[in-house]
Design goal:
about 350 residues; 13 helices; binds pyridoxal-5'-phosphate; about 40% helix
Length: about 350
């Protein structure tokens, strides 16, 4: 097993020691299964501290499950979901939203992965709203931070939420990296969600130091009524839920969520600076959270994609343009960054 830390994914990292401690602390005696336990009650209270008194949080196993369940809970099969063409929802969930939530996805091309009012206004066929032959847009789903490492500000989220609500739609945030977005902007989690008018959030924990665990968080009244049944039907109900809940509680108590995310973001900024100092390397998207998308010359990709011991160092995101994705984690070190930049520099001078 390699002890190396690369930049392939923020899922490649291990578990933060404080999360390990929380799991161990929860590993005492018997408690009720399926969420009827004190750890889950505590986590649900913790979510209310961050997201407001109306927040209803439901722990789930993974991010795809959180997205699909959130969508399933608030849509019907004749509905459509507006999302960016680069969204995880449309590219990386194997059609789960279509199959399981039964919706039609309406992907819209969005530079740097961010939807805007203008893009949505152009992307919707307004003539077909109310037309019984067409799927009806019901939800706008954005990821924050985005799949391309960019971030929506509270005002940008607020404008999309206002637009959604004015058109009888709801707004969902895929927050697999919501902590990175909030840390990057130095705002609270509520500023990007509850206070911006978001209806439902997929809250990400796994990429930010958890062993596994995410939560679907309903922020508007009346949306969570049948959710426990949705979660059960889709296989996202954990019997030993206390272990997911204890992790979420530990992440959100104190500032661990922000510390981990801010660190990963800082490493990405350092990485961006270091690699763009190398001739022939440029950024493909602004670096605003913990991901760096950069154009590398083909020989550099060839030499660096895999490290000597066979571990993946990064993913090639777009082969024709030589864009690679470099993700930083809570455990990425300055040394990891500097070593990669220096190897990159070496490939240019060879
Ligand atoms: C933006 C985004 N959403 C959701 C997910 C959820 O992923 P998973 O189902 O692998 O936990 C990911 C993981 O890569 C992601 O990047």
């Amino acid at each position: 097993v390699s002890a190396l830390r690369g930049f392939a994914s923020d899922n490649y990292s291990g578990v933060h020691p404080e999360i390990v401690e929380a799991i161990l602390a929860a590993n005492e005696g018997h408690v009720s299964a399926y969420g009827d336990d004190p750890y889950t009650a505590a986590a649900r209270r913790r979510f209310r501290e961050h997201f407001g008194d109306r927040a209803e949080a439901f722990p789930v196993f993974n991010g795809t499950g959180a997205n699909v369940d959130a969508i399933d809970a608030i849509t019907r099969p004749h509905h459509a979901v507006i999302c960016a063409a680069t969204s995880h929802l449309t590219l990386d969930e194997a059609g789960a939203p279509e199959r399981i939530a039964g919706v039609k996805l309406l992907p819209i091309e969005a530079p740097d992965g961010k939807l805007t009012l203008g893009l949505i206004e152009e992307g919707i066929d307004w003539g077909r709203i109310g037309d019984q032959h067409a799927s009806q847009p019901r939800l706008i789903s954005i990821a924050n931070s985005t799949e391309l490492g960019t971030v929506y500000t509270p005002d940008e989220v607020g404008a999309l939420a206002e637009f959604a609500h004015a058109h009888e739609m709801l707004i969902h945030v895929d927050g697999a990296r919501i902590c990175n977005a909030a840390a990057a902007l130095e705002v609270d989690l509520a500023a990007l969600t509850t206070e911006a008018g978001v209806d439902v959030l997929s809250f990400g924990g796994t990429k930010n130091g958890l062993l596994l665990g995410e939560a679907v968080v309903f922020l508007a009244d009346g949306l969570a009524d049948q959710f426990e049944l949705v979660r059960k039907q889709t296989g996202q109900l954990a019997s030993k839920m206390r272990f997911i809940s204890a992790q979420l509680d530990a992440l959100l108590s104190g500032d661990l969520w922000r510390r981990n995310a801010a660190h990963a973001n800082a490493m990405a900024a350092r990485l961006a600076d270091a690699i763009t100092a190398v001739e022939g390397v440029s950024l493909a998207h602004p670096v605003e959270a913990n991901g760096v998308f950069a154009r590398l010359p083909a020989p550099a990709i060839e030499q660096l994609e895999w490290s000597a011991d066979g571990a993946r160092a990064f993913y090639v995101w777009d082969e024709p343009t030589g864009v690679v994705r470099l993700m930083c984690s809570w455990d990425t070190t300055g040394g990891d960054v500097d070593a990669f930049a220096s190897r990159l520099s070496d490939t240019m001078t060879r």
